[in-house]
Write a structure and sequence with these properties.
Layout (H helix, E strand, L loop, with lengths): L11 H27 L4 E10 L3 E3 L5 E6 L6 E2 L4 E5 L2 H71 L5 H46 L8 H18 L2 E3 L4 E4 L8 E2 L6 E4 L5 E7 L11 E6 L3 E13 L25 E8 L1 H6 L7 E7 L4
Antiparallel strand pairs: 1-10, 1-14, 2-9, 3-5, 3-8, 4-7, 5-6, 7-9, 10-13, 11-12, 11-14, 12-13
Helix pairs in contact: 2-3, 2-4
Length: 372
């Protein structure tokens, strides 16, 4: 009787296939987990990144009608190139007036200095007048004493009839005249002293204007010179120049337009100083640090052109927090959304020169969080 419970022979080919398949799965699993162990989380990437630059807004520092516009949009300019010329007529007239005021101030100060010398001489003259008046008083006092003695003698002789009445009258007149001369001399002395005081006051007032200064360092001259310098600067500012190397964009000025100080004329974008603002999710930034290498590709060139940059720093806040109307989460009625934080990435200048970028272009950025 045949043995019906015997195990049928197994197919060795099928067994080998299953074994090979299992080995392949094991190798793949080991490779996957090994990659995750060594490389997983090393790279963080985003396509929410854009080219940016510190643009220069060109504004005039003086006003007037526009006489020339020498650039147009998309034109490349260098620092110092003339962009706009404002009609300099008013500035030239102001400069001429400032030059005249400066020359007048210098002459006025020199005149004041010369007047100081004249006032000093006048004070000396008043002092001499006082000395002369004092001498006149001494003479008048001597004449008065002599006239008093003469009158006293004649009055004594007249009582005995020794002198005539006419002679006595003449002596009295002489005494009165001597008294008048003394009073006049004293009045002249007082006048001379008053004149000396006035001369001293004028000299002091004049010295206050010029004391410790020269015609070049006098405050009035310095103020006039400052106005002259300002007028020269205003004339120079009628020529508006490029503040940086870059490309002209948003030109808003037209020939003949009257502009005032602070009016935005155009923007100059320094394309050779472009950088990238990459908006990474907050959950991607655990291992990101300044100085880490970054590889970037731009949509304008595709994957064939790879830029190499470095992380410079992080923004002070997320886009939603710095929005014009920030999110109001204090009520508690909100849904948690993963936020993105702008990360600034510096680009290699040589690569940027070979493949120029413009602000606003889309970028894909990948940061190596284990790189140096």
């Amino acid at each position: 009787m045949a043995d019906t419970d015997a195990t049928p022979p197994q197919n060795p080919t099928r067994k080998r296939a299953f074994t090979l398949f299992g080995a392949i799965l094991a190798v793949m699993a080991v490779g996957y987990f090994g990659y995750q162990w060594f490389e997983g989380g090393r790279y963080v990437e985003t396509d929410d990144a854009y080219v940016n630059a510190e643009v220069a807004v060109v504004t005039p520092l003086t006003g007037g009608p526009v006489a020339q516009v020498r650039v147009s949009n998309t034109q490349a300019v260098h620092c110092g190139d003339v962009l706009v010329v404002i009609d300099p007529t008013d500035a030239r007239l102001a400069l001429a007036a400032a030059q005249a005021n400066y020359a007048s101030a210098v002459r006025h100060v020199r005149q004041t200095i010369a007047t100081g010398g004249a006032l000093g001489a006048a004070v000396g003259e008043r002092v001499a007048d006082i000395g002369r008046m004092q001498a006149q008083i001494a003479i008048a006092e001597a004449d008065l004493a002599r006239a008093r003695i003469d009158l006293t003698r004649r009055e004594a002789l007249a009582a005995d009839g020794g002198v005539s009445g006419e002679e006595l009258t003449s002596a009295r007149h002489g005494f009165a005249a001597a008294q008048g001369n003394l009073a006049a001399a004293r009045a002249s002395l007082a006048q001379a002293e008053a004149a000396r005081g006035s001369a001293h006051g004028q000299q002091a007032a004049n010295d206050a204007l010029i004391s410790g200064t020269t015609a070049d360092t006098n405050p009035d001259v310095l103020a006039a010179k400052a106005r002259l310098d300002q007028a020269r600067i205003d004339l120079d500012r009628t020529v508006v120049r490029a503040p940086v190397d870059g490309v002209v964009t948003q030109r808003n000025v037209q020939l003949g337009q009257r502009v005032s100080a602070g009016t935005t004329l155009m923007t100059v974008v320094p394309v050779d100083q472009a950088y990238v603002d990459a908006n990474f999710k907050e959950s991607q930034l655990r291992g990101v640090r300044p100085g880490q290498p970054v590889e970037l590709t731009a949509d304008i060139y595709g994957g064939k052109v790879v830029y190499h940059g470095r992380v410079v720093g992080f923004s002070g806040g997320t886009g939603s927090a710095l929005a014009v109307i920030p999110a109001q989460n204090a009520t508690g009625n909100w849904i948690k959304v993963v936020q993105r934080l702008p990360v600034r990435i510096a680009l290699d200048k040589d690569e940027l020169a070979r493949h120029p970028l413009r602000i606003g272009l889309s970028i894909d950025a990948t940061i190596d969080t284990r790189g140096n």
